[in-house]
Amino acid sequence: MISEEKNIAExxxxxxxxxxxxxxLKFQNEENQPQRISREIDSTYIQFHFCVxxxxxxxxNNSSYELPLKEEYSLLLYNPQRDLPLNLDLHPKSxxxxxxxxxxxxxxxxxxxxxxxxxxxxxxxxxxxxKDGDITPSMAIVLNQLMNFNLMPSIKSLYFxxxxxxxxxxxxxxxxxxxxxxxxFLVDEENVMKIRRAKDIVIAHMAEPPSLQELSTEIGLxxxxxxxxFKQIYGDSVYSFLFDYKMEYARKLLDSGEYNVNExxxxxxxxxxxxxxxxxxxxxxxxxxxxxxxxxxxxNS
Length: 301
Prior knowledge:
This protein has 11 helices and 11 strands.
């Protein structure tokens, strides 16, 4: 989709690409007859619709199901199980502004953990969301600015981007409506941060790490989510990750030349040298002593 302006069935459509995976659609029906609007939108996108003026109705399942859209109301649509093409009957003298955003892009707006969030969304990933709500006065100002802007064409993309972000921030900052259900995807960032905290805890206590149950209790996440989440983010189980970390840490201590093999073993949690030697050999294919000797031997290559 590219930025375009055109007349369709006696109505006005303006489609503007903000960024990859992020579009603004403006629809105006200034005629005396309803206007049918159709756009293909797949299941990887979340849709925000704002009825600035007039009214209309969304049609689903070959028009077997209708969802009304009223003036000064918004509607959030998301269905990860199937595509949700935009099929809308826009009534006479009606204006609609829509934000269409890929879920990947949507996550990245709110969270630096965006690439990790989906794994913890088992309870969210199969849910459909059809949520309506009032358009607040602050949102109405932005919507009217988008509808009635009068700027040089070269400025339009930048202006629309700023207004689109402003509109989303207002949408998710409505007083008295801070429930998770309004934005079910964002709750997972907290879970991601809990998993990150679990990693920090086991590293900080590598010599005597807590049990998985103790770790689960400390971070406030179920044992099941701790196991699944840790594997998704770090690619391994908690203790397999910790083993690899300990061995790498031990190798760096040996590299420093400041500690002998027994001292390094104790620092990473091995009370007997034989257990540390066996673990080190399992990881690197050589004993700590031979590894240290290889550091001081001349390079004959």
